[in-house]
Design brief:
This protein is mostly helical.
Length: 349
């Protein structure tokens, strides 16, 4: 029992710092990736490869996103950066859905806890949900909010020579920072803060064994419970694997672990808020609807098709995020967020 408000505050601060340790390295990596793509890829290339509203760009975006090691908040600047650089809405949404669910390291961690059937099924579900979300968003997502996201014109066809936007190494370094940090992170910083606050509150005020003690559900209802746990929380795709295995140990069906790992990394307050800010309410609804329905559908079919007695679920060890690199990244992110907040206050004054 926590006896004083001071204990609550200290625990909340500890949990908020833990979220920062988990989030900061991947978020900053996503900003770096977005900045590098923006600076080094010649103008018009992304438009030519991902800008057309057909199935080809959506497929390429999903294929590119599945192996990329970016978590839920790390994919925000990368995906939005692609969109602002000329990728179609469908390709951008496909990338945003497929990327945070999977990566090479996540696949091997999933195998170590759950076995190859689970790991490979998770890869397939991530790829297919990305394709489906991208296709629906492209066709029924409404008008494009950015002119830069329109399909390429004839003058942008392959073979055209376009001068580099950043001719020197110094200008490239400045361009990476300006686009990745000032532009993209500056656009979504408020939602990042909200995500940290909400995730830390959930961890602090919901007892750790709450769901385990009340775990009497099975079948499809267990999948729904896993979905409800995963939706509001920040979840790193790799770090969530032990948590998903713990849900199964607590009594949920193994498909619930798949639901948690598909829905969790792709949905949290920061991600949803950023997508709403850039793409609007209709695309945000499509994004959430495909992830929710897809995670439940694939979780159900996994339980139905795979022999559960052949799937190994290992006792999980604590996944440590408090390494020095994560601490440095967390401190740097706090400084950046404080800088954006101060600028917002000054602009209103």
């Amino acid at each position: 029992m926590r006896e004083t408000y001071r204990e609550w505050i200290m625990e909340y601060g500890t949990n908020a710092w833990a979220v920062l340790l988990e989030l900061a390295p991947w978020l900053l990596l996503g900003c770096l990736v977005a900045g590098i793509l923006h600076v080094w890829i010649p103008p018009g290339t992304i438009r030519r490869q991902l800008g057309r509203p057909g199935f080809g760009g959506i497929l390429k975006a999903a294929l590119a996103g599945v192996p990329m090691p970016l978590c839920s908040c790390g994919v925000i600047p990368a995906g939005i950066g692609l969109y602002k650089d000329g990728a179609s809405r469908g390709a951008s949404v496909s990338f945003l859905v497929a990327t945070p669910q999977t990566a090479v390291d996540t696949t091997f961690v999933s195998y170590s806890f759950m076995g190859w059937p689970f790991a490979l099924f998770k890869l397939l579900s991530s790829f297919l949900t990305g394709l489906l979300a991208g296709g629906i968003a492209q066709k029924w997502g409404g008008p494009e909010p950015y002119p830069a996201a329109q399909p390429p014109t004839e003058s942008q066809e392959p073979g055209e020579t376009v001068p580099s936007r950043y001719p020197t190494w110094r200008s490239r370094m400045i361009g990476v920072w300006d686009f990745g940090i000032n532009s993209l992170l500056g656009m979504v910083w408020k939602w990042i803060v909200i995500g940290i606050v909400v995730s830390a509150a959930l961890t602090t005020f919901i007892p750790q064994d709450f769901f385990g003690d009340s775990m009497v559900v099975s079948g499809f209802s267990g999948l729904v419970v896993a979905l409800l746990i995963s939706l509001p929380m920040y979840a790193c795709s790799t770090a969530s694997v032990p948590i998903a295995a713990g849900l199964v140990h607590a009594g949920l069906p193994p498909g619930a672990a798949l639901v948690y790992l598909v829905a969790g990394p792709a949905t949290n307050v920061a991600t949803i808020g950023a997508i709403f800010r850039v793409f609007g309410g209709r695309v945000t609804g499509i994004y959430l609807g495909v992830i929710i329905a897809g995670s439940l559908l694939f979780g159900y079919f996994f339980d139905f098709l795979v022999d559960m007695t052949a799937m190994r679920i290992h006792d999980h060890a604590h996944h440590e995020h408090g390494n020095p690199l994560a601490a440095v990244a967390a401190l740097f992110l706090v400084i950046l967020l404080a800088r954006f907040a101060w600028r917002a206050v000054r602009s209103r004054g």
